[in-house]
Amino acid sequence: MRLLKRLKSTVKSFLGVDKGPNLNELREMGMRVGENFIYDAGSTRFDSSHCWLIEIGDNVTFGPGVYLLAHDASTKKELGYTKIGKVKIGDRTFVGANSIVMPGVSVGENCIIGAASVVTHDVESNSVYVGNPARYLCSVQEYYDKQRIRMEDLPKYDVSYTIGGGITNDKKQEMINDLKDKIGFVV
Questions:
Q1: Counting Cβ atoms within 10 Å, is residue 47 exposed (0-12), middle (13-18) or buried (19+)?
Q2: For 55-105, what is each residue's pLDDT tens digit?
């Protein structure tokens, strides 16, 4: 019976059906989460086995598929112990889609972590880090200054070009045509 239960759990996990405890349950288990935390509840993963080692600041946004790990079992078989470490995400930080933050890592305040980054070392406040392993790209201010300049020559769209703004099929097609070989910006 125990083997069947374990097999069922493994299959559910593999298929993505069982995402583990929800955010409120993780908070009850000791995970600290600040105000105005935005994340995709269907794809964001938190290390529920050591969630009390995770701290997320205020005004933090995660893209879909972010994974915070507070343990690393690579040493378990050989040493009999699993590595563990605190994970801290500072205030006003954005973590891009499908990024992984490893145990023992602290991400400072006002940071941007690029999509699909693997963060293996501490990240200084006011920094943009990208890649696998994540490396320093520039300051947040340099990044925003560069984007402001790019915005001057690229398409910009108001809220009517969003699902929440009731985008029409004509506006969708306009966007598709405009963005054929470049990016743009939407409110």
A1: buried
A2: 999 999 999 999 999 999 999 999 999 999 999 999 999 999 999 999 999
pLDDT exceeding 90 applies to what percent of the chain?
A: 89
Active-site option among 19, 32, 45, 71:
71
Give the chain's largest Cα–Cα span: 64
- pTM recorded for the entire structure: 0.86
Relative to beta strand 100-101, strand 67-68 is parallel
Instruction: Check if the beta carbon of residue 129 is closer than 8 Å to that of residue 119.
Output: yes
Domain ranges in the chain are: 2-152, 154-187
Any residues with CB less than 8 A from the CB of 3 and at least 6 apart, and which?
A: none
In sequence order, the 6+-apart residues with CB closer than 8 A to the CB of 14 are: none
Catalytic annotation present for 71? yes
Note the CATH architecture for domain 2-152.
3 Solenoid (2.160)
Give the helix/strand (H/E) hosting 76. Answer: helix 76-79
Stated as kind and residue range, the H or E segment containing 136 is: strand 135-139
Instruction: Name the band, by pLDDT with cuts 50, 70 and 90, for residue 2.
Output: low
> How many Cβ atoms from other residues are within 10 Å of residue 56's Cβ?
23
What's the rounded Cα separation, in Å, for the pair 54 and 103? 9
